[in-house]
Structures are given as C-alpha cells and as structure tokens.
C-alpha cells in the first residue's frame, strides 16, 4: 500500500493549466510538468516514458500510479489503449480533466487491487513507494495476457540519489531504495526474463556533471555570484535529449546510473 506521510507546504504549483483543470501542487510525492523549477525531474521521468512508448505500439497498456497523467497520455499516442491508475484524488481528477483521447481513460484505484487484464504495464518511479513490492510485482504478472506481455519498472539508484556517505535519500515518500543488484533480484523473483537499463546524463547535463567533478563548478558559480541566474536558465532548458538509457548487456556501469529501468517478461 502506498504510504501517506505528512505533506509539506508546497513551494510550487503548476502554471497555465487548461480551463477547468485544477493545477497540482508540487509536494515531492510525484513530478509534474508545467513547473519550470521541477523541469529536471520531469524530463528525467518523461524520457523513460518516451523510451517505453514505441515498445507498446498497438498494445493494451496500464500505467500504474499514473500521477498527473502526462505519461499515460504519451503512451496513448502509440498504444491500442491506455488506462491510467491513480489513487490520489487530486491527481486522478486533474488527469481525467486534462488528458482526453479516445483510447485513454483514468481509473481511481490502488495499484495493489486494480486487475484489468492487459498486454503491458508501466510502473515508473513508484516501486520505491510501496510496502510490499513482491506482492505488487506478482499481481502485475497475473494481469498480463498475450504474446508481447511485458512490465516496465523504473526506480532511482540509491547510490546516486542519496547524499555521499548516506544509506538512503531523505525523500519521505520512499520506503525502499535499491542498488542495481537488489532491483534486478526483486524483478527476477517474479519474471522469467529481466533486462535492466541504466539512465544517465547526456549532452549539457553530462557537461555540467563533468564541470562539477573536475572544474569545481560549485565553487566557481558561488564565487561569481551567478548561481541563481545560471540555474534559472539551465533547468528550464533541459530536455529528454539530455538523458540516455543504456542496457546492462553493453557492459554499462549500473552503479553510476541515475535510475534503473527493468524490462520484465514472464
């Protein structure tokens, strides 16, 4: 069951929503589009949906814990049908009102109990939130039908998410954070074929990462007093092209990944 810790006072709210669509506040539980300050995390999540999209062409898809709805809407551009499943009443109502396609619908339910048969399930950046991930994955496997049956699961890498020297991050919504081997073992306990990909910085984010490590950029921008204007320009300019997914089969160092994406087949 998804945890429901006390919600902090939101600092940011979505901008310029369509008429009649209530904006969502950024609480840290889920990422949101239309919040410039959140753009890094939004694009980091969106790129995985973009990667999944061609892999579910013509399939019946369930987007579990669909949140604001942007991912379900994206998958519906290729899938035969998409159902976004979301328990939070505000997020569910927002998604229902904002995203309208003939092959897209939203259901308010828990990921542990929603059981409509489907060809594919997307469960992105949520398994770290659930109390019993084994039961959830077993439930997903039982929902699958068809020769192309597949579950896509993503989660952050605790080694790059947590501060240096810490065993986990300070995100109050996360119950369990995984290393690559732990995540692979969890998925492999329920699916016969599992391939894990790592998500990494690319292009300008890769350059920024290099500057932080080798050019003491944190010291430089602070000394020059340009921290806020620099990041006020950088963060909104980040796009999906500033991230890249690499398969473990290519000898990728998953310990250095930002997030893991598992492709799980029965």
Overview of this protein structure:
- The chain has 266 residues and is an alpha/beta fold.
- It has a single domain, classed as Rossmann fold (3-Layer(aba) Sandwich), CATH 3.40.50.
- An eight-stranded mixed β-sheet has the order 5-4-3-6-7-10-8-9, sandwiched between helices. A two-stranded antiparallel ribbon has the order 1-2.
Any idea what the radius of gyration is?
18 Å
How large is the share of residues in beta strands?
A: 15-25%
User: Termini separation (Å)?
Assistant: 24 Å
CATH topology: Rossmann fold
**Would you report the number of β strands?**
10
- How many domains, in number, for the residues? 1
> What count of helical segments does DSSP give?
9
Largest sheet: 8 strands, mixed
Bulk shape: globular
The CATH class turns out to be: Alpha Beta
Structural class by helix and strand composition = alpha/beta
What's this, in brief?
The protein has nine helices and ten strands. The chain has helices at 39-52, 70-75, 89-98, 133-143, 158-161, 180-188, 203-214, 217-224, 227-237; strands spanning 12-13, 25-26, 60-64, 81-86, 104-108, 120-124, 150-156, 193-201, 243-247, 259-265.
């Amino acid at each position: 069951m998804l945890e429901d810790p006390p919600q902090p006072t939101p600092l940011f709210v979505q901008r310029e929503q369509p008429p009649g669509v209530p904006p969502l506040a950024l609480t840290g539980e889920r990422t949101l589009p239309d919040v410039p300050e959140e753009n890094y995390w939004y694009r980091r999540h969106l790129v995985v949906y973009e990667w999944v999209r061609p892999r579910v062409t013509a399939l019946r898809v369930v987007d579990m814990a669909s949140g604001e709805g942007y991912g379900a809407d994206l998958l519906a551009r290729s899938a035969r049908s998409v159902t976004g499943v979301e328990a939070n009443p505000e997020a569910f109502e927002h998604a229902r009102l904002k995203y309208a396609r003939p092959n897209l619908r939203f259901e308010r339910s828990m990921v542990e109990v929603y059981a409509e048969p489907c060809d594919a399930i997307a469960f992105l950046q949520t398994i770290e939130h659930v109390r019993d991930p084994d039961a959830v994955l077993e439930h997903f496997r039982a929902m699958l039908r068809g020769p192309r049956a597949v579950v896509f699961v993503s989660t952050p890498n605790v080694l790059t998410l947590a501060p240096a020297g810490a065993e986990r991050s300070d995100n109050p919504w996360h119950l369990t954070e995984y290393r690559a081997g732990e995540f692979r073992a969890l998925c492999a306990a329920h699916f016969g074929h599992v391939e894990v990909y790592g998500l990494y910085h690319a292009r300008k984010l890769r350059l920024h990462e290099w500057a932080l490590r080798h050019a003491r950029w944190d010291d430089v921008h602070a000394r020059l007093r340009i921290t806020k204007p620099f990041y006020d320009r950088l963060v909104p300019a980040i796009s999906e092209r500033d991230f890249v997914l690499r398969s473990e089969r290519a000898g990728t160092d998953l310990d250095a990944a930002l997030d893991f994406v598992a492709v799980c087949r029965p």
